[in-house]
Amino acid sequence: xxxxxxTILLLLSFFVTGCGDENSSTAVxxxxxxxITPEERSIIQGDRARYTIGISSISGIPIxxxxxxxxxxxxxxxxxxxxxxxxxxxxxxxLTLSTEDDTPSGEYTLTIGHNLSExxxxxxxxxxxxxxxxxxxSGKGPAGxxxxxxxxxxxxDQLIVFGGETNGGxxxxxxxxDHVISTxxxxxxxxxxxxxxxxxxxSGHRAVYNQGNSRMIILGGIDPDxxxxxxxxxxxxxxxxxxxxxxDPAWEDWVDEGERPQHRxxxxxxxxxxxxxxxxxxxIYGGASVSGGVTTLSNDVWVLKNAxxxxxxxxxxxxxxxxxxxxxxxxxxxxxxxxxxxxxxxxMGGRTAKGVYSDVWILSNANxxxxxxxxxxPLDVTGGPVPAREGHSAVYDPSTNRMTIFGGLDxxxxxxxxxxxxxxxxxxxxxxxxxxxxxxxxxxxxxPEARGLHTAAGASETNQLIVFGGLSxxxxxxxxxxxxxxxxx
Length: 489
Hints:
The protein has 489 residues and is mostly beta strands. It folds into two domains: 126 residues, Sandwich (Immunoglobulin-like); 353 residues, Kelch-type beta propeller (Neuraminidase, 6 Propeller). It has one helix and 36 strands. The strands form nine sheets. The protein has a five-stranded antiparallel beta sheet, with no helix packed on it. Strands 29-33-32-31-30 form a five-stranded mixed beta sheet, with no helix packed on it. It has a four-stranded mixed beta sheet with strand order 3-11-10-6, with no helix packed on it. Strand 22 and strand 23 form a beta hairpin. The radius of gyration is 27 Å and the shape is elongated.
């Protein structure tokens, strides 16, 4: 053996140990470094996850040697393939993990080895139980729309949609999708013609629903000319919204002569009407007002008492002034959910004067009842980070104290299609964490087109999320999707 080859072998043997982190970059007997990217994936049951294993020589010295990759600890219902395998070093290989629809959900640690030494890499696969399904409905449905409102009546299994902006203008249409989640009936769209006084066309408004008496409350919005809807056209209540109370749906307009919030769009609106308390209070936060082409952001909190107009007293506004301390930045396009058990409102994300955020805030004593002051608290959240967004959707599951968000528009206005679940959303537990995400999609599973400015309604009894419409890359959507296991379980 000549002196040159002896020198090379001595150099190579120098690198046998001590190079890199065993979990991400490891030196092996043949003196190469290897890594895996990413180090974890989260996918839907039935989807595929892909990882890149990169193998490079030290000091640029190529090693013409073949290596065969192996993978251990595969969970039930998961198959794996490397391409290429074996490989000629230095090179890279694509690892594909394919799951079945019944693969158990959970976090799995996988160990990747090879035939040249005992050094290994580790990666994780998180299989989520989320499962998207598109609703195929009969009848001519609404046009593609964004900035609309929708509410869900679980008793009647109906999605009620009002208004929004289409490719041809702004609407005041009222639609109902019957048999939304039923497995025995075919979903079907029908347009509802309401006689008498009706709201003006609008978008950017909000709606909540009292299922106990089938009343839908809508508030705010912007008209077809880009102006805020008028003071006499902001608050409307649709009675007999589901059509199941012995009469036709009818609109009632309400004007409060006292102090009231400035008209706005892109605000959040939640409803406190727990079955036990029947408080019948709407809570709104933030949003934007437009006047003369100038947009003004808000971070105020208002409560609408006797909100659905069914009580002896008419609906009236009360401003909530939280105690001094930290308050969220003025914003629009955020989301809010309400936990009746702790009387807290949870807001997330939205656009501020400084950009788009992904922060989470908790408002205690959100409905303003009792002696306890209302206080804003920023929620310390681990996990993620969740990309900043506006125009997304959020629903809350009180049984697990989890908030699920979907989609939205990122800081560049690009639509998103990711799902995140916030554990311990109301902040009363030990810690709060973004613990679920979906980071990869393939043609192996169905999932909605990325979108923002859509609506989502939660069916907590069946742990489902119902998504309708929205805006995607300039296209107005009118599809309906249902997410199973929406709280991540």
